[in-house]
Amino acid sequence: MARPNIGGQRVFSPGRWQTGPVRVYLGSDHAGFELKAAIISWLGEAGHEAVDCGPASYDPADDYPVYVMRAAKGTIDDPGSLGIVIGGSGNGEQIASNKVPGIRAALAWTVETAQLARQHNDANVLSLGAREYSLQDALSFAKVFVETPFSGEPRHARRLAMIAEYEKTGELPPLPH
Q1: What pLDDT score was predicted for residue 14?
Q2: 127 within a domain of the structure (yes/no)
Q3: Residue 175 lies in a domain
Q4: Domain, as residue range, for 70
Q5: Which of 26, 93, 101, 117 has its CA 20 to 30 A from that of 65?
Q6: pLDDT of 71-88, one tens digit each?
């Protein structure tokens, strides 16, 4: 069954971008469990589709790679979708997500870093540290990330192409002349 506008279809209207509903894959560890639930709630209220990759219940001994790598894999396997991974600091979750080929996971600690992750780096996964900022701040980072499109500026696209080529071939980009 078709899902209209899911996948971040963007329509330009005079003076601004409008982002349609986006499917967002989420994974966390125990430290990010409550924040994940809050983001899932916001996503639903905002008309986005949340896919919870776990954990399904709080377990203080869980292992974040199990869940965040599934969120990253779901994101890369579903073109146009995004991912959000959450831990105590967000560092391990970002590292694990970036092991999935094609993922560009970015750690955000301000609204600006979340926005630039999308605008300049076309990040497809946002990593958040639940112990690092307030719930309201974390929700604002998630909102900006989900609703900000990639700028498509040639310099940013060129840099992303270099990264993708390295990921594909293992060859470093050539040094400038």
Answers
A1: 27
A2: yes
A3: no
A4: 19-169
A5: 117
A6: 999 999 999 999 999 999
CA angle 167, 169, 175 (to 5 degrees): 85
Report the relative pairing of strands 16-19 and 10-13 from DSSP bridges: antiparallel
For residue range 92-133, list pLDDT tens digits in order: 999 999 999 999 999 999 999 999 999 999 999 999 999 999
What sections of 46-110 are H helices per DSSP?
64-77, 91-97
Identify whether 24 is part of a domain. Answer: yes
**Residue 113 — φ and ψ, nearest 5°?**
-70, -35
The pLDDT, as a whole number, for residue 116 is: 98
In this structure, which amino acid lies at residue 148? T
Tokens standing for 139? 């929700």
Residue 19 banded pLDDT, cuts 50, 70, 90: low
In a domain, 133, yes or no: yes
By the 8 A CB rule, do 128 and 108 touch?
yes
CATH code (residue 145):
3.40.1400.10
Specify the length of the chain in residues. 177
How many other CB atoms are there within 10 angstroms of residue 18's CB atom? Answer: 11
Domain count along the chain: 1
Catalytic residues: 93, 120
Report d(CA 170, CA 173) in Å as an integer.
9
